[in-house]
Amino acid sequence: MSFKNFRFAIIVRVILITATMLLLGYVAFGTENQVNIFFISLAIAVQVYLLIRAVEKTNREISSFLNSIKYDDFTATYPNVGHSASVDRLYSEFNNVIRKFREIRADKEANYHYFRTIVQHVGIGLITFNKKGDIQIINSSAKKLLGVEGINNIFELSKVSPKLVESLMKLKTGGSDLVNFTQDGTHTQLSIYVIELMLRGEEFKLVSIQNIQSELEEKEMDAWQNLIRVLTHEIMNSVTPLSSLAATVKDNLVDNIEDDVPIEKEELEDIYLAVQTIERRSQGLIRFVTDFRNLTKIPQPKVATESVSKVLEHIQVLFKYEMAAKNIKTSFSVEPVNLTFSIDKELIDQVMINILQNAIHALEESTEEKHIIVRAFVNEYNRPTIVIRDNGCGIDEEALSKIFIPFFTTKKQGSGIGLSLSKQIMRKHGGGITLKSVMNEGTEFTLRF
Q: Rounded to whole angstroms, how far apart are CA atoms 73 and 76?
């Protein structure tokens, strides 16, 4: 039998039980005791009513308890004494459950306030917003960096920097960008980093914002100081002997002019050699300045999708005979073989040539079996990566810190601009170049695209 609700089911069942009892009384007493049957029926009706009321009261209390949990209302309490043992035990369990939920909510609120305090006081700006741009969290550091008080939507930042809003909406997980803007006459450069999150089926972005202007200025100053140090070293190396030779020639000529003595052939030869040396060193200084000027003229990459395997095959053919002549074993591998990347092939060829030439130079004095390993793969950030490793003499720690500085070189003959150019080319491709080296073990260059 099916009933629409619990109350109706109870009533029907009790009525059936009552009818059965009346029938039993009728059979037992017959029609002579109709008064007794009436009072018995009345008593049964009252008991049925009280039973239904008790059952419904229990149901209402259970419903009230479940609603409290549903709507996070844990203020209710239930008296757990003064009733039957089963009811007291039921109320006691209700109170235990409500108390446990109160403790959980208190812990949850404490943790929320704890983490909110951390977020608000951390030195890095943090913003979270959904796909519509509605902001959930913006901490004090972010407000200070952006010069805003209270904003509700990320698009309100357009008045601060339209490019910032464009970057925030465009960037995906792991994406980063540098954004420049001027605020109250002060130039600021922000570094932004984005990750995407899912919360209850809704997509959010978490953005970290840092003002790197001061760090950039410090690095820029360090770069200028290192560059000036190298430039002055190279220029002084050329200018000092030129000055000395010019002074010597001048003294010889002055002596001959004052004494009105003809210059002998031997003295003319000495003057000729001095002038020739001055000319040669001057030309070297001009080449040095030309190389310096070329550093500022790297073209913008003309990017196209290229096969990594084909690029490495071209480089392998280019160095094949030189490697064989110098007994250098090479190994080129690409994983996966169909790996591609977006590059300006001519510029990346130049980077590869510079690094391989350095590797060959590092192996020149090696007495062990010489190896150069070139390996291409996809790194953990799903970006194409090329690693070039040799087992040469390595680079000492002091030189490592200067290796990408223009005109710094460890070679006896070298301009010192190859690695600096390579670094700039990689930056223009949106990638980077890093270096690891251990003395007498080898050097490893990593190109990330």
A: 7
Query: Is 315 in the same domain as 440?
Result: yes
> Is position 319 within any domain?
yes
Instruction: Tell me the H-state helices in 122-212.
Output: 140-146, 162-170
Residues 315 and 424 in one domain: yes
Give kind and range of the element (H or E) at residue 338.
none
pLDDT tens-digit series, residues 120-166: 888 888 888 988 889 888 888 888 888 888 788 888 888 888 888 88
Alpha-carbon gap, residue 341 to 304, rounded angstroms: 8
Please name the residue that has the structure tokens 């270096």. Answer: 435
- Give per-residue pLDDT as tens, 355-398: 888 888 888 877 788 999 999 999 888 889 999 999 988 888 87
Handedness of CA 243, 249, 253, 258 (dihedral sign): positive
| Token pair of 206 as six digits | 């978490």
Q: Which domain holds residue 267?
A: 216-294
**Residue 1 covered by a domain:** no
Any long-range contacts for 99-106 (C-beta under 8 Å, 24+ apart)?
A: 101/69, 101/72, 101/74, 102/74, 105/72, 105/74
Give yes or no: residues 316 and 409 share one domain.
yes
CB 124 within 8 A of CB 209: yes
Any idea what DSSP says for residue 254? H
The whole-model pTM stands at: 0.46
End residue of a domain, out of 176, 211, 246: 211
Of the three residues 211, 228, 251, the one that is the final residue of a domain is: 211
Domain count, the chain: 4
- Full DSSP string of 355-408: HHHHHHHHHTT--S-EEEEEEEEE-TTS-EEEEEEE-SS---HHHHTTTTSTT-
- Do residues 179 and 308 both lie within one domain? no
Domain shared by 317 and 443, yes or no: yes
Q: Are residues 227 and 207 in the same domain?
A: no
> From CA 375, how far away is CA 387, in angstroms rounded?
5
User: SS3 for 205?
Assistant: strand
